[in-house]
Structure formats: C-alpha cells, structure tokens
Write a structure and sequence with these properties.
The structure holds two protein chains of two kinds. Chain A is mainly alpha-helical. Helices cover 75% and strands 1% of the residues of chain A. In chain A, α4 packs across α7, α9 runs antiparallel to α11 and α10 runs antiparallel to α11. Chain B is globular and about 75 Å long. In chain B, α3 packs parallel to α6, α4 packs across α6 and α5 crosses α6. In chain B, β1 and β2 form a beta hairpin. The longest helix of chain B has 44 residues. By secondary structure, chain B is mainly α. Classes of the chains: A mainly alpha, B mainly alpha. Chains A and B meet through α2, α4, α5, α6 and α7 of A and α1, α3, α4, α5 and α6 of B.
Chain lengths: 301, 297
C-alpha cells in the first residue's frame, strides 16, 4: 500500500500523454506555417516572374507609342487606350444600374420570395463563366442589335459581368449603416427618397467607390468577354468612335502568344504588356482596399 | 402636396425595383440566348451523340460533334487543380484564422484578396512560358502544355479564393466553441482540428464547390496552357482541351447560323448548366451554415 497519490491518479501517464500531445501540436503548427509560406511564395512568384521579365521592356516609349515592325517593336498605346475605353464604358453602364439595384434591395425590399429570387439571380450571374458572357454579347449586341465588334458591344458585355460586383459591394456598405441614421432622418420629416439621397448615399460613398474601382479592375483584366465582341489584334489607328474595334491589354497578351508572324520576337512585348496590365489591375485593387480600410477606421458609429 | 410626394415616392420605388430586377433579366437573357442558339445542334445530331460522342471534327467534310473529350478535359484539369489547391488553401486559412497574430492577419487578408484579382491571361502567360517548359524538362515530356501544367496553374489561380472563403467560414465559428474546448484541457491544435474545423465543414465545402464552379468556367489560362488536343488519354501528362477553351478558340472562325456555331453554343449550354449547378449547391449549403451559426449566437 505504498502507492503515492500521484500514482493512483495516473499523473505520470497524464504527464507523458501531455508531452506527446504537445509534440503533435508542434508538428501540426509547423505544417500550417509551411503551407502559409508555400502559398505566399506561389502567389508572389507570378508577380515576380512578370515583373522581372517585363521590366526590361518597360519604357516611356512602350506605353506611349504605336506598335512598329509587325508587333515586334514600339509601344502598346492602342491597347492601353482600348482597355481604358472598355472599362470606362462598362462602368458607365453598370454603375447606375448597380447602385439603384442595391438601394432597392437594402432600403425597400421586404424579406420575401422576390428578394430571395433576386439575390439568387445576382449570385448566379456572378458565377457565370466569362466566356459565356462573351457568347451572350456576340449573339445579342454584336449580331442582334447590330453594334458589330465594337467598343459599345464590349462595354455592354463587360457591364453585365461586373454588375454583381457593384451590387454586392454597394449592398455591403448600405447594410453597415445603422438604422438610427434612417430614423433620425424620418424623424425630422424627410421622405424615404430624401433620406436615401441626403443621408444614406453620402455616408455609403466609400463603399460604393470601392465597388466601382473593383469593377473597373475586373473589367480591365478580362479577356474572354471581349474576344468576339470588341477586341482586335491590330488596328492601324487609335479608335475614334464607340463603334470601332479596339486593341485591349489582356487580349493583346493572348494574341501576341498565338497570332502574328514573329512569335519569338513578340514574347518580350507580351511580358511588357502583362506587366502594364498587372500594375494597372493590382493598382486599382490596392486603391479600393485602402479606401475601405481608411473609411472603416474613420467610422464613428 | 402630400399626394404629389407619394406619387413621386412610388415612381422612384418602381424605377429602383426595375433596376433590381436587371440581374434576373440578364441571367434570363443569357439562358434564352444559349438555348435558342444551342438547341438546334441537339436536333441535328442528337443529344446523346453530342454529349457522349468522342470525336470533335467540326471542319471535316463529314463533321463530328462529340464533346465528351472536352468534358473530360475540363474535369481532369479542375480536379487536378483542386487536389493541389484545396489542402494548401485549407491549411493556410487555418493558420490565418486560428493562429496568426492580429497584425499578420490584417496584412495577409488584403494581400490574398489582391492576388485573387490577377487577370487570368497573366496566369496563362506564366503557365505557358514558365510552368510548361519546367514540367516538360522535369518529366522529360515531348510537350509541356499538358493537363498537369494546366492543373498547377489553375490551382495557383484558385488558391486565393479557396483560402479566403475557408478563412471566412472558420472566422464565423463562435469563440465559445474554442473556449469550451480549451477549458476542458484540449490543446490549441486539438481544438482546431477536432472542434473548429468540423464545425466549419459545411462552410469549407461551400468554398470548394464554388472553386470547382470557377475552375470549370475558367477560359484563358487553360486555353494557353492545356495544349488543346480533344482526346481522352487518361493521363495527366498529355495535352487536353476544355469546354471553355474550345469556345474561345473556335468561335471567331465560325459562320453565324452554321452547324459549328450552334455546336459551340451547345457546349456553352453544358458548361452553363454545370457551373449553375455547382453555384446552387454551394448557395444551399452556405445558407444552412449561416442560419445555424446565427441561431447559436
């Protein structure tokens, strides 16, 4: 009967068990840290790859001149301008529609079957493959309405694609506003629309801006929707009407890799174009993120 | 005065409702366009022959339109990508949600969001000029543009999406779960793997299903990296062709109203139904997930 209290309770066993459990934890956490490092590495290698190979091509001439010698020299000005027009056009169409839709969903709609159906429609529109938007644009804008392969057709196609992005970011910022704002406005006799115009929209502006910029970034980077609706590999002149075809940065990268007569000599131009596109898209997204973080910090409610 | 104000409010409300319905209208429009342009092909060669035929020779004298090899191509690339991206994304998300100190978490989340915005054509360039030659040399293959290369590129591409949705799911698990587990003496690791992770299971499956939907619909990267031969070889190291890249590569050459034109819309119908199905399933699961955790709180 000389067993100690510790032995009867099995404390040594618990202790050795605990050290084993701690070891498992250590191994597990090491694996997690390793995965994080691998993930970050994989994602940065793409940016690094494009930056290193593209940096040598980048120059003032590259972004400000027309292409020369069958796309093997010169600049990519037409592609930069084309992407600018297409994304601008997409936002002009999608922004009013998206903001008004979000206002309805958050301020007016009752929680009923209609709201759920509309939400489902938005979610599923966001999940439609980009090439399907391209086909839709081809059949409807290019052929049915007869806009042809043009900036107009491309912008409209991209607008439908970025609509869910704009609706959902606007919706998010409207939802974040406390009801006391609305109640205070009604309390002094404002109508619903006056409240929205005077109180809700100005306060939600940073969120709406974030959505808009994200939408522009998305539109600028997409290739598949403009393949048959707007893009051309080579245009002799800069576009002067919305009914013209345009060169665009993402399509230019693809075309330099697959079309043309001097594929080898085109590759450096493709790297340079990719770097310009990457800086443009990541720059826009960065601005959007900074606006969101700053407006969150400033928030007083 | 009062009446005027009410009429104005009513008109505004109607305009807003009209805008809100626009997404539904566009989605409906897409469905109508796909079906009116695509259904003729089913009539001309038969639905089963279209879906299960293995030969795709659209420009032959006696053309064949069987898309089974493309369905195979889309799926092998997608699942290859998922096998690679899912574990990595889940583990990374687990670290960010459960272990990372506040400052690291607040830095990593926007960075991952930012990386999700890299255009797919840039991934295509990266795949065609870096990954494919590397894969070719590593395995001594005749060509580097294979299903394997495409799966790797696509895997890297969906990694930010998988990570951020899984992270959201893990973060939405109430802290009481973790505290209860730690209080009865479980280690941090045990809490993560046996409590948080299982509790977030449906959120994680939503993330994976959404990623499958996105991967099947991805066009440019696959078009530039997968090689594009419409055959079923049952090997990761052979070129394959996906549904999306077939449409992208061939649509420009077709004549409107030709059988080839309708066949490509037929491919789009199959593609659209698949992505829609994955989205609806994901939505269903995520709806239940959020309902459960808003109820426990």
């Amino acid at each position: 009967m000389n067993t100690t209290y510790e032995e009867t309770c099995g404390l040594p066993e618990i202790k050795s068990n605990l050290s084993r459990r701690r070891l498992v934890q250590k191994i597990g956490i090491t694996i997690l840290v390793l995965s994080l490092i691998i993930s970050v590495f994989l994602l940065f290698i793409i940016i690094l790859f494009v930056a290193i190979r593209g940096a040598g091509v980048l120059s003032w001439e590259f972004i400000s001149a027309m292409p020369r010698k069958a796309m093997t020299q010169g600049g990519i000005l037409p592609a930069i301008l084309g992407t600018f027009y297409l994304s601008l056009g997409a936002v002009v169409f999608a922004l009013p529609l998206g903001i008004l839709a979000a206002i309805y969903l958050n301020e007016y709609a009752a929680d009923n079957i209609l709201l759920r159906v509309i939400r489902m429609g938005i979610n599923n529109l966001a999940g439609v493959p980009s090439i399907v938007f391209g086909l839709f644009g081809l059949a409807v804008f290019v052929k049915f309405f007869g806009f042809g392969v043009s900036i107009l057709s491309g912008s409209l196609t991209l607008a439908i694609m970025i609509l869910p992005v704009i609706i959902s970011t606007t919706l998010e910022s409207l939802r974040a506003l406390p009801d006391s704002f609305r109640e205070a406005s009604y309390g002094i006799g404002a109508s619903k629309w006056q409240t929205i115009k005077g109180i809700i929209l100005p306060t939600a502006l940073p969120g709406i801006l974030t959505g808009t910029i994200l939408g522009i970034g998305r539109a600028a980077g997409e290739t598949a929707p403009i393949l048959f609706t707007a893009a051309t590999f080579f245009s002799r002149k800069l576009p002067s009407s919305i009914m013209h075809q345009v060169q665009a940065l993402p399509y230019h990268i693809y075309a330099l890799m697959t079309e043309g007569t001097h594929l080898k000599a085109q590759v450096p131009i493709a790297y340079g174009t990719a770097l310009v596109l990457l800086m443009l898209v990541l720059g826009l997204d960065l601005i959007a993120i900074v606006i969101r973080i700053r407006s969150r910090k400033k928030k007083l409610w | 005065m009062r009446l005027k104000r009410n009429t104005k409010e009513f008109i505004i409300k109607s305009i807003l409702l009209f805008c809100a319905l626009s997404s539904l209208v566009f989605l409906g429009g897409i469905i109508i366009v796909l079906f009116t342009q695509g259904v003729p092909i089913f009539g001309q060669i038969g639905f089963a022959k279209f879906l299960f035929g293995t030969g795709w020779y659209p420009t032959h004298e006696f053309p064949e339109f069987g898309i089974l090899s493309m369905i195979y191509g889309s799926f092998i690339i997608t699942f290859g990508a998922l096998i690679f991206a899912a574990p990595l994304g889940i583990l990374t998300a687990l670290y960010i949600a459960e272990l990372a100190p506040f400052w690291l978490k607040e830095t990593l989340k926007p960075i991952i969001e930012l990386l999700a915005g890299i255009p797919s054509v840039v991934y295509g360039l990266f795949g065609a000029l870096l990954v494919a030659p590397f894969v070719q040399r590593l395995f001594g293959l005749p060509v580097g543009l294979t299903a394997f290369s495409a799966a790797i590129v696509l895997g890297i591409m969906i990694l930010p999406t998988v990570t951020s949705i899984v992270e959201d799911a893990l973060s939405s698990i109430p802290n009481e779960y973790r505290e209860a587990s730690l209080a009865i003496g479980a280690t941090k690791w045990e809490t993560m793997t046996r409590i948080t992770l299982p509790a977030a299971a449906s959120g994680i499956s939503t993330a994976l299903i959404l990623s499958i939907g996105r991967a099947i619909g991805e066009t440019m990267a696959i078009l530039m990296v997968a090689g594009g031969s419409p055959r079923i070889d049952f090997s990761l190291f052979k070129p394959v062709r996906a549904m999306t890249s077939t449409i992208a590569a061939e649509m420009a050459e077709t004549v409107m109203g030709s059988i080839h034109y309708h066949a490509l819309f037929g491919v789009a119908i199959v593609l659209f139904i698949m992505t829609l199905a994955f989205n609806l399933i994901a939505e269903r699961i995520s709806y239940r997930f959020h309902k459960r955790f808003t109820a426990t709180r």
